[in-house]
Design goal:
Blueprint (H helix, E strand, L loop, with lengths): L2 H13 L2 H7 L4 H15 L4 E3 L4 E3 L1 H27 L7 E6 H6 L1 H6 L2 H6 L2 E6 L1 H10 L4 E6 L12 E16 L16 E6 L4 H9 L5 E7 L2 H9 L5 E4 H10 L2 E3 L7 E10 L5 H12 L4
Parallel strand pairs: 3-4, 3-5, 7-8
Antiparallel strand pairs: 1-2, 5-11, 6-9, 6-10, 6-11
Length: 296
């Protein structure tokens, strides 16, 4: 049995598409298919149902999933801890963070505690929420920093992961201002409002979708990048729910104004996640430093 078989299985169970999973694993599709078959032979049961047009998990495949995630993370952790005991170290501690928090929140946050920087050698990986969750589930990173709302849904099972609140933010429905510094687009009017929205990979998109009541919004553009939506809102292309921390300079300058009522704003948290199981000495020391600056 090879660890890469488990990582292949997790990629395929996520995408349910051999071509996409093989691409994500940086291997040819025939080679990827052979490795999946090798895993199934080792298990002794088929994990996937393959048809001409689809791939689905068998009951055995569904049962296999949770333990495969746990085992993969545990093996990565075992390697890191063994290298740590041997005095060789396993390289920098990696933190996955969503794109917007990587440049609006993370720099100020890590500088707020001398202890965090003193522990040193941090590696920030910036990506979409979906990609960050995948890295966390695979054990590729030690921590995940993201916006969070209790209604958004998360792939990080609370039995396997824990988190602390390290900041707060607000999703605000914003529009470019007109010449009178009033909203160019407004939900208060009867007109259909052009809506700039987030793609499914976005954690902010999950939050907005969980909070959005039926409104007369015409979806005209989709992106997983809040910065892209911000740029289009500035240009007057429509409205978007944006983190206040991202748009605060534009709001202060009066170039962007709120396009909805008070109920349109969504208070959200900024959370740091980690595996619930005890980690290596370096990870635990860094977690203690993060806990010291936890938002009450």
């Amino acid at each position: 049995m090879d660890l890469i078989w488990f990582e292949d299985y997790l990629a395929l169970s996520e995408t349910l598409n051999f071509s996409k999973a093989a691409e994500a694993r940086h291997v040819t599709q025939p080679a990827f298919s052979r490795r999946i078959r090798a895993l199934e032979e080792w298990v002794g049961a088929p994990l996937f149902v393959r048809t001409t047009h689809s791939v689905t998990l068998t009951r055995a495949g569904e049962h296999f999933h949770t333990q495969a995630e746990i085992l993969t993370r545990a093996l990565h952790q075992l390697r890191r801890e063994t290298l740590e005991v041997a005095g060789r170290g396993a390289g920098p501690l990696s933190i996955a963070a969503t794109h917007v928090l990587s440049f609006t929140f993370f720099p100020k946050w890590v500088r707020s505690s001398e202890k965090i920087l003193a522990l040193g050698n941090l590696n920030l990986i910036s990506d979409s929420m979906l990609a960050c969750e995948r890295m966390m589930l695979r054990g590729d990173v030690s921590f995940l920093l993201c916006h969070y709302h209790r209604s958004m849904g998360s792939r990080l099972d609370t039995r396997q992961f824990k988190s602390i609140v390290v900041g707060t933010d607000t999703l605000v429905l914003l529009s470019a201002a007109d010449g009178d510094r009033k909203s160019r687009w407004s939900l208060q009017n009867d007109e259909t409002v052009p809506y700039l929205t987030y793609s499914p990979q976005s954690g902010l998109g999950r939050i907005v979708a969980s909070q959005l009541v039926k409104r007369d919004l015409k979806k005209i553009f989709t992106s997983h990048l809040a910065a892209t939506l911000l740029s289009m809102v500035r240009s007057g292309d429509g409205v978007a729910w944006l983190p206040r921390t991202l748009a605060e300079d534009d709001i202060a300058a009066g170039s962007l104004v709120e396009a909805g009522d008070a109920k349109s704003s969504v208070p959200i948290e900024i959370r740091l996640f980690r595996p619930a199981a005890r980690q290596g000495q370096e990870v635990e020391a860094l977690w203690s430093a993060f806990e010291a600056i936890e938002v009450g």
